[in-house]
Amino acid sequence: MRGLRFIHRVALKPRHFKVYGSNLLYFFNFVATTSKSPALREAAREMASHHIGRRNGDATRFPPDPDADDITQLVLAGHSAEKHGLRDRALKARLRRAAEGFRAEEYLWFDPLVEPPPDDVPEACDCGAGNERGRKRCRGCRRKLSYMTRYRVWCLALTTAYSGESYGVRLGASYAEVLRWLPYLRPYRGPEGGANHDFYDAVYAISHLVYTLNDYGRYRLSPAWLPEEFEFLSANLSEAIARDDPDMAGEFLDSLLAFGRTHDDPVMRPGVEFLLSCQNRDGSWGDRQAEIYARYHATWAALDGLREYDWRGEKLRFPEVLPWLEFWAKGRKSRRAGRRKASGNGGGAEVSA
Fold this sequence. Notes:
The chain has helices at 2-12, 14-34, 38-52, 68-82, 89-99, 104-108, 150-167, 175-179, 182-185, 199-213, 227-242, 246-258, 269-277, 292-306, 322-344. By secondary structure, the protein is mainly α.
């Protein structure tokens, strides 16, 4: 409850709500509709009802010449509003028409129909200039650019497609079209003592795969559907604790809860105790000197990792992808069986790939 009140105070500040209002409204909806605790549900509902009336006019104002980013932000605002019962059919129809004028690359940085998540997408430059794929130096300030990992590109594409499809406006590709590249990200490497620089983004790609498949806390997922992700999460929670990272620890716990683990599970308990030990006095989690998004996101993640869910059965938000998950899981079992058989044949045996 203290963490929930902290995020409420963040949302009360106009400068924060103007930038993060849609994201904050998502948060209040998820807590209000998925928490097992009646007190937590009711508090989140009351906070949401207070904030929904404060939606900034810019959040729903259709610009005269929108680009793909404008369309995406309007879709996110419309989707978060619909979750609170506010529907604007005229805006949605206009967004559907406008969205058709842009290519998948303009929404997602790549086209999932023709290529896997790339590793040549520049991170945003501090100067604010936009830079195309493959560019080595910023077109604005000429600084050397760093690149997003393929995990981060895919994660952002997956959440964008989830919001677009859930709202009813296609943002470059369907959810299934982005999901089809999941095997390309496997197998996952562990932290490797800090040598694996992709570890952080791999964690968040997996956690957001869980969130979008279980509709952000509504449904349980079977570990048999995502065996590699379940094993990765179960094996690496300790790394979030070692890094003193409550945001990451919360994402680990939240995702494992969706797979059926409980707070009393021996795998989970160290993470629970870690989060309970590092809450700030103001109710937040994370570095109190960090910028506000990092502060409230760490608090959001920690809350989701600690609260109990009112699950609505074992189900997928997009049931049409179940055959793919089962096919991939079956292929993994076959590969493992093949390796065991090869191992039993002795070192001199030849095994085809």
